[in-house]
Amino acid sequence: MKEKLKSIGRNLKNEIDFYRALSKDNRVPTISKILIASAIFYFLLPFDLIPDVIPVIGHIDDLVIIPLLLYVALKFVPIEVLEETRKKAKSPNCSI
Hints:
Distance between the termini: 29 Å
Order of helices and strands: HHHH
Number of helices: 4
Structural class: mainly alpha
Helix content: over 70%
Largest sheet: none
């Protein structure tokens, strides 16, 4: 259990580093940067399209909208940039 939590934490850190690096890369289109920022802001904002107080449905919008924004954002980024940035984010001495 402890190892699984550590693994999840490492993966989350790698993903955060990955999206941070993408947002700073000049080769990434502006639309992708806007969509990534939108996903982050939507996650952090205290209100949603469907309030979280509504059981089940209130959380589904978070589970759909955020990944959808990130998916569309990554579609605009060249594959070479994605691969290079992913390698940087996974490196142990990542200084993004």
